[in-house]
Amino acid sequence: MPRPQDTIFSSIYINEALRSNKAVVCALSASYISTFAGYPLDSLKSRLQTTKTPISVPRIALLVYREEGIIGFYRGLWIPLMTISFVRAASFTIYTRTKEFFRDHHLIDHSELVGCAAIGGIGGAMAGSLISFGSAPDERLQVRRQLEYTIAEKKGTKLIKPPSTAAAVRDIFRTGGFFGLYTGFRLHFLRDTAGTALYFLEYDGMRHLLGRLPSGEQGPTPPWLPIHASLVPFVCGSLSGVTSWALIYPLDVVKTKVQQRALAGELYRSPAETLHRLIRGPDPQNPKPLIAGIARIYRGLGVSALRSVTTHGLLWTFFDLASGFIDSLPESPA
């Protein structure tokens, strides 16, 4: 612990503060970098999910560039850059504290694959469910900012200059009040709880398979994947991000559609009806082929997969780098 005579500017005080808040510091620093790198792909994903006609990623990227310029890919960036980073910090804190609780009380054997993955999944479910209450308004506003041109088109208006973030918040409050920020919350809660549980379950399971020791340190990688130890966080983060996201992707599509309709002032449709119309089409007398409907649900998955590889790979890489740096700091003298 810092001694009374240590000031907040002393290296001893700073080192102890970093050690005491390691999960928060690592998550914040890693999240800023990964969010900035993956945001343009997230913006394209939202547009692909809401378009009614098939369109390739390069084409929609070109349309965004022509209509909005480079800033169109980063519209609303500061919102997730500030809020998602703090949400991730809280999420990682809940996740690590849950793992520590299970480890300290010896509730599950974390030295085995199943136990290690199960603890990660429980920690992820706890983090996802609790954090969803704070992240839902942020994501609601993010969808509003990303789809401003699409929403204006549905309202039959021509958007010359998109409104500011403050104006977007006022518009949501004007039309839906405070709870307008929580439109589609049940889907958001389910997606975040299930998705985060799967994410951490897969990540911890893969790290165990790739040689992480019960102490948390990285051991030698197995012969079937002889990669450098520094690449293990990127590989595990990328794979867990892509696979968990693919499993919950339909939930995200339905959530985005429900929120888009609410923002455009269109008649409310339940999540079940929205999913059915996405898969089978609006005409019950002439339903779309099931395979074509499922393909529509997963439209934009490719760009989402690329975003997940980028975002989660960088997130865990820089998280481990920051964690290693903090662990290497000199201990304070007794």
How would you portray this structure in words?
With 334 residues, this protein is an all-alpha fold. The protein has helices at residues 11-20, 22-50, 57-68, 78-104, 113-146, 148-154, 165-176, 185-209, 232-263, 271-280, 290-297, 301-327. The chain is globular and about 70 Å long. The mean pLDDT is 84.
Proportion of residues in β-strands: under 5%
Number of strands: 0
| Cα-to-Cα separation, first versus last residue | 9 Å
**Rg, Cα atoms, Å:** 22 Å
Which shape, going by the Cα principal axes? globular
Look at the structure and give the mean pLDDT: 84
- Helical residues, percent: 55-70%
Number of helices: 12
Biggest β-sheet strands, sense, barrel: none
Low-confidence parts, pLDDT < 50 over ≥5 residues?
Answer: none
The ordered H/E elements are HHHHHHHHHHHH
> What structural category characterises the helix and strand content?
mainly alpha
SSE arrangement:
Elements: H1 11-20, H2 22-50, H3 57-68, H4 78-104, H5 113-146, H6 148-154, H7 165-176, H8 185-209, H9 232-263, H10 271-280, H11 290-297, H12 301-327
Helix pairs in contact: 2-4, 2-12, 4-5, 5-8, 8-9, 9-10, 9-12, 10-11
